């Protein structure tokens, strides 16, 4: 596995805006904070749309940000030709998030020819406590 | 475990409308199709809001309907005092759903004093093929 | 997916005895109870080797029987050329098993070209209560 | 959560030898390499008993070492009164392990009053590649 990334943050954002505009449906929810070999960090803006009563970020919003972090990490590594599909997604909810942006750190545990496996730890901005933890598997289509 | 349900479908709908109005934020997405001892069936209306380009129902929408089905099955069994919290949620995406309503069948595998474990099979209306399969764990708070 | 099975129980047992004799290391632990389209039932003999103090069947023994049930169900469907490899295995332990043989019922949720996904419910012989529940994913190698 | 550990490695080994002698049934398989606040590292000796043909460490052996690492990390933190029970165990098999000892690094993501959630990364000794990754949940009994 080469440690050279195939896309910059700017290229990733342009790619997402063009190919998956629905990610930002209703207003921009996510931002790419940084990418690195076999990893990415993504931010979920604290926003009414993602909240449960009491100000807690909803489960589906946490799932969406984790899925986004994994997809960005895979894209950065493989380049824009990749069309990975989530096959398994397992999340443990550990603590109530604070009323702040949520940061999702993704590490690719494996990036094989057919499968990628990634883990994501989510923390409220500025906190060390893991709010939720995800392990996901992506199926990578054959490359020509 | 008694096989007697503590709530009717009507009571469940009233409870959800009152306690969790945000479930229906943006328009009514879910309907309770039926409940039974240790199980429930819930419908996700096929609707623009839940779609990915190409008309596929999005992953987060599938997660929401599965979570809803599990919560309804637990509520029906325990009554409205219960405030179960999802602790683990694991989903396998198996096939592309059709451009139809999505039916989620939940069976409670265990309903203990502290933990409930449930599985959910999701199918496009009128089809036998499982589109996605979920196993979830809920933590049940101590009852007075 | 054809509903025609490619192997009989006898052929499956011969195949396992020849290719994976270590399954029976230390004495015969498993028996194939039956196969059907997209499913199989396997028995774990109640035996000292699989026990925890107090007579409870150990977690690893439950994992082994579930894995075996999934592998038999896939082999029956694909025939002896298949060399499926477990990629994900998720188990929920629900109840203490009884001091009896353990029956594992496997259903294939999906049998695609590259991935198979199966669920397994384990019950003590003669009981309806699910003792443990597994969802597993297998990677299927390209077929020539 | 206090960062002070309640047991030393020596006390942990004595506790396991006394309370769970079956862990070492057939010869000593595991060794505690080290403990730290909210974490532990455990070694699985490369040994015939754990092998599949070709010299690969078997899935059940990997599951056993991961479960052991999680249990040691919880015990070190809570002390010998704890009797944690595995409720969910999810493993991703990523690479073939080498013909060497297997090292399992456990980190507790949460240690609550009722639930502990841990992750474990397994690597062949001297390698950086993750061979298998586990997330597990333990139910912790009420403490008097």
Explain what this protein looks like in three dimensions.
- The structure is a homotetramer of 144-residue chains.
- Chain A is α+β, with helices and mostly antiparallel strands.
- Chain A contains two helices and six strands, in the order H-E-E-H-E-E-E-E.
- The first copy, chain A, has a six-stranded antiparallel beta sheet, covered by helices on one side.
- In chain A, strand 5 (115-124) and strand 6 form a beta hairpin.
- Chain A is globular and about 45 Å long.
- The model of chain A has no long low-confidence stretch (mean pLDDT 88).
- Chains in contact: A-B, A-C, A-D, B-C, B-D, C-D.
Features of the shown structure:
homotetramer, 144 residues, alpha+beta, Thiol Ester Dehydrase, Chain A, six-stranded antiparallel sheet, 2 helices, 6 strands, 35% strand, globular
| Uncertain spans of chain A | none
- Give the ordered list of helices and strands of chain A: HEEHEEEE
Helix count of chain A?
2
Name the CATH superfamily classification of chain A: Hotdog Thioesterase
Q: Tell me the total number of β-strands of chain A.
A: 6
Q: Which class of chain A in CATH terms?
A: Alpha Beta
Average pLDDT figure of chain A: 88
**Biggest sheet descriptor of chain A:** 6 strands, antiparallel
Oligomer: homotetramer
CATH architecture descriptor of chain A? Roll
CATH topology of chain A: Thiol Ester Dehydrase, Chain A
Strand content of chain A: 25-35%
Query: How far is the first residue's CA from the last residue's CA of chain A?
Result: 18 Å
């Amino acid at each position: 596995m080469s440690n050279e990334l195939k896309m910059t943050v700017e290229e990733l954002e342009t790619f997402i805006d063009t190919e998956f505009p629905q990610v930002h449906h209703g207003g921009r929810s996510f931002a790419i904070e940084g990418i690195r070999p076999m990893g990415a960090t993504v931010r979920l803006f604290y926003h009414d749309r993602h909240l449960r009563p009491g100000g807690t970020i909803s489960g589906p919003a946490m799932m969406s940000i984790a899925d986004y972090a994994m997809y960005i990490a895979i894209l950065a590594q493989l380049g824009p030709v990749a069309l990975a599909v989530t096959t398994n997604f397992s999340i443990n909810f550990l603590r109530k998030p604070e009323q702040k942006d949520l940061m999702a750190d993704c590490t690719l545990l494996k990036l094989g020819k057919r499968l990628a496996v990634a883990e994501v730890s989510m923390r409220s901005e500025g906190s060390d406590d893991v709010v939720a933890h995800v392990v996901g598997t992506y199926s990578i289509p054959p490359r020509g």
